[in-house]
């Protein structure tokens, strides 16, 4: 499937702290067998102006569908959506001028240079030629601008896609998996670019990603999606503060410690080498007391704050438990209904 590069033309308007709001958005698609598959099931989230939002969730959770609804590529079945103070899709044409996005990866003419590809796109959308050089420099492709696109690395292709979406200086930039498949150096370059866009250009950025560690480094807000619903929509700082902290044990006796703590109801996660992670809401001294009472003494024990991965896994676990309870309740309710005679 070919990707789409969308352009946004910025113009002045009233400043609002809440740039985008989804409220109870529902979207269903027809399946090949004639059924209906729910992609968004009461999807609700906010995007504050000037924020860098990480949109997280497994494949099929509804992240890309939500972004397509925002961009006007898919029409919602129910719910409301407002962006820049306007109702969508009614005012989609006006709002589209303020947004730039890459969905499903960048796509350009392979035989042309990066500069030529951007220049053609700029002419198509009425962008001045001088901006081509500016955005290429901004994304770090000035030296490779006159090389053939077919010779670009994956990271360079991703950055050229971002450059294309930046040509008209959008107020809101939406990127679907911009770090997918990149090597560590390219991931670092993309991370630095996103931070620069937010801080230096005062741009609002939404990034859909699977790389939790990178989202934790660059984003100030996180939205977690599961089964078409938002199960968490908060600042990274608040999310980490609520997340489960962990006690880290290190030493040759971690296997004994694992069996012991497992038996006492602790959530134990083996790590690389002779290290063990124990999720606990209490202080490390509680873990140490249990181990000492049974003669198990690790070489090292320390307390670590929750990571975004910890918070993500905990949020997904709770959402799955609540969903399972609802399913079980519905099954019991159905069984209890009298059959029609």
TrEMBL record:
GO molecular function, one term: ATP binding
UniProtKB keywords: ATP-binding, Nucleotide-binding, Transport
Pfam families per UniProt: ABC_tran (PF00005)
Residues annotated as domain ABC transporter: 20-252
Protein family (similarity comment): Belongs to the ABC transporter superfamily.
Full protein name: ABC transporter ATP-binding protein
Annotated organism of origin: Streptomyces roseirectus
